[in-house]
Amino acid sequence: MIEVAVFLTDGFEETEALTTVDILRRGDVDVTTTSLTGCMTVKGKHGVPVTADALFDDVVDRPFDMLVVPGGTVAYTEHQGLLDLVVRYDSEGKKLAAICAAPAVFGKAGILKGRRAVCYPGMESWLTDATIGSDMVETDGHITTAKGPAVTPFFALRLLEILRGKEVADEVAKAFLIPLVR
């Protein structure tokens, strides 16, 4: 089974986190929502409380196939354990993904040099040494980034395609009534 960690911290963007989790799970990906706050309940940017599946310290050594950071806040950049994990995954060529404000984590971790990346408009200064891409969702090597909430279904489908293939992603898109143009 393919395993993915989706990280949550107070102020996370609910649409980006929960839609991504939903689409990946519809594609038979085992997703572990992971709290960075030390508490199982994490409060989203718009006040929606979400109960995480696990705490960071309990899963930090699990061999996930991909790490996903939804946006909503740059507070993710303050979690040293997450930064260290991102650096480790990058050095091993493992899959990483972030959307909206969260690509700031990759910038702060110093893993974007020479890579195409995107983020929420106006936050490009966080993408240290990156080439700013022009697409709504950019995949450069093992790193995928996306611009923001409205493109979340396409971001999640890209991740599903990377993890399970185009056929599975297209099946989920069709069932979800998402246009197949990505």
Automatic annotation (TrEMBL):
InterPro entries referenced in this protein's UniProt entry, alphabetically: Class_I_gatase-like (IPR029062), DJ-1 (IPR006287), DJ-1/PfpI (IPR002818), Prot/Nucl_acid_deglycase (IPR050325)
Domain of life: Bacteria
Gene3D superfamilies in UniProt: 3.40.50.880
GO cellular component: a single term: cytoplasm
Domain DJ-1/PfpI span(s) in chain numbering: 4-161
Pfam families noted in UniProt: DJ-1_PfpI
PANTHER family, alphabetized: PARKINSON DISEASE PROTEIN 7 HOMOLOG, PROTEIN/NUCLEIC ACID DEGLYCASE DJ-1-RELATED
Protein name per the record: DJ-1 family protein
Organism lineage: Bacteria, Thermotogati, Synergistota, Synergistia, Synergistales
